[in-house]
Structures are given as structure tokens and as C-alpha cells.
Specification:
single chain; 166 residues; elongated; 2 domains; mainly alpha; Multidrug-efflux Transporter Regulator, Chain: A, Domain 2
């Protein structure tokens, strides 16, 4: 009965897949939507791990699919593989729990909130002065007279969170 609860039906092949089943590299690549060479690269970087069959073929636990999903999404929002690797290193190698993933998520919340704030600013503020020093928009001469924003640093100061009224 317990094994039935931990299984799911694969409707294409009519086989039962279990959480404990190891998957060959091609199946993992297809299911995760990455190339086989990407899996090898991630493994070389220590982001994922495999076991080897007697013939030297790589096999992965099903849990690697969650790690790959995490890697893909984190990369997509611009996080580095080094940062991703540090985060994954904080998880137990075998079977991270929901609490483990929640702890990782909480540790990344400030970084992700900052990225979200910057992305929202990029989306919502490009039609006004962003404090970059161009002074090309009418708003720039009002919000950033004489490029006052340059006194706080380089780049688009208001878009990065500096106060335009200071």
C-alpha cells in the first residue's frame, strides 16, 4: 500500500514510476528540458550528482529534477552559478525536505526582493528620469538638475533605489 502511494502512473508507457527509481541521463535531460551536456556541466560544477552503472552510464535520482528546476529558474532571473552552487550546498545531498527548501528560499528572499524591485523599476520608470546622467528627457532636468545623482555613484541611481528628492 505504501509503495502505491509513492508511485505515479506514466500514462504513455503504462509503467509505475517510483520516487526511488534512478533515471538515465537522457530521461533526466528530456524531463528537465536541458541538454545532456548541460547535465554533465552541472555535475562537473558540483550542482548535481549521479551514480554510475556497471557500464559507466550516469543515472540520477528523481530528486535531481527539482535541483535542475531550481538551477534553471535561478539562472533565468540572473543569479550566478556560483551563488546557485552555494545555495544548493546548503541542502542535504539526498532528499531535501520542504523545510530545507523553505530555509533556502528564506535566505534568498532579500536578494530576490531587490531584483524584483529593480525589474519593476525598469518596467515602470523608463519613461522618466532614472538618474543615469543623460539629462535627455524633460523630467531629467527637474528630477536630476545638473546631474545631482552622480554624487551618489555611477549608473542609473534612481532606478537602483537612490532617493531622487535627496
Amino acid at each position: 500500500m505504501a509503495s502505491m502511494l509513492r508511485s505515479q502512473l506514466n500514462l504513455r508507457s503504462r509503467e509505475f514510476l517510483t520516487i526511488d527509481q534512478e533515471l538515465p541521463i537522457g530521461v533526466v535531460a528530456t524531463r528537465a528540458g536541458v541538454s545532456v551536456s548541460a547535465l554533465r556541466f552541472y555535475e562537473d560544477r558540483g550542482l548535481i550528482a549521479s551514480t554510475r552503472s556497471g557500464g559507466g552510464h550516469r543515472h540520477y535520482s528523481r530528486g535531481v529534477l527539482r535541483r535542475l528546476a531550481f538551477i534553471q529558474v535561478a539562472q533565468r532571473v540572473g543569479l550566478s552559478l556560483d551563488d546557485i552552487g552555494l545555495a544548493l550546498a546548503s541542502l542535504p545531498e539526498e532528499g531535501p525536505t520542504a523545510k530545507d527548501w523553505a530555509r533556502l528560499s528564506a535566505s534568498w528572499r532579500p536578494v530576490l526582493d531587490d531584483k524584483i524591485r529593480i525589474l519593476e523599476g525598469l518596467r515602470d520608470q523608463l519613461d522618466s528620469c532614472i538618474g543615469c546622467g543623460c539629462l535627455s528627457l524633460d523630467h531629467c532636468r527637474l528630477r536630476n538638475p545638473g546631474d545631482r545623482a552622480s554624487g551618489t555613484g555611477s549608473g542609473p541611481r534612481y532606478l537602483l533605489g537612490d532617493d531622487a528628492t535627496a
